[in-house]
Amino acid sequence: MKKLALAALFVATSLTMNAQTIFGKWENRNEDTGKVDSVIEVYEKDGKAYAKIVEITNPDRKDAVCDQCEGPNKNKPILGMDILTGLEKDGDEWSGGEILDPKKGTIYKCFIQLKGKNKLKVRGYVGVSVFGRTVYWHRKS
Q1: Which Gene3D superfamilies does the record cross-reference, listed alphabetically (predicted)?
Q2: What is the pLDDT of residues 20-60, one digit of tens each?
Q3: Is 51 helix (H, G, I), strand (E, B) or coil?
Q4: CATH number of domain containing 88
Q5: Per the domain annotation, does 11 fall within a domain?
Q6: Residue at 62 is within a domain
């Protein structure tokens, strides 16, 4: 009986811990329609957070390339592209990295912060964070 209770506690704890992380798959929703535009996977590499586009919901955009990008992302497929790079944990947020808007080809400074277990605040900005834009990604169920 003790083993069963211990196993149940372990499963419950790991589920709770997984739900309280920025890592995993997130839905980016169109601000006007509320429909999912893409699915983004946030992952960890060398202690930093990165994110790549793993799904594009619009069939006409599945083969889209970043034609507005400069440098190494120029004309690369958006699907599979890293759009969030090099964020480091700083208290309750991850900051110090960049985010790419593949539709515009623009790179912004960025920070992200978990807002509840299923909502991620993503803020891109130029210069200081007051000059920027915030979007919210929703955990993919």
Answers
A1: 2.40.128.520
A2: 899 999 999 998 899 999 999 999 999 999 999 999 999 99
A3: strand
A4: 2.40.128.520
A5: no
A6: yes
Residue 63 is assigned to a structural domain of this protein: yes
Residue 130: per-residue pLDDT: 81
Scan for tokens 């704890």, then name that residue: 13
Q: Report yes or no: 112 and 96 within 8 Å, Cβ to Cβ.
A: no
Contact 126, 108 (CB under 8 A): yes
Question: The domain containing residue 95 runs over which residues?
Answer: 22-139
Please say whether the beta carbons of 113 and 93 come within 8 A.
yes
Q: What is the pLDDT of residues 77-132, one digit of tens each?
A: 999 999 999 999 999 999 999 999 998 999 999 999 999 999 999 999 998 778 89
With tokens 């509840």, the residue in question is 116
Token pair, residue 92, equals 């309750």
> Which residues on neighbouring strands pair with residue 110, listed in sequence order?
97, 124
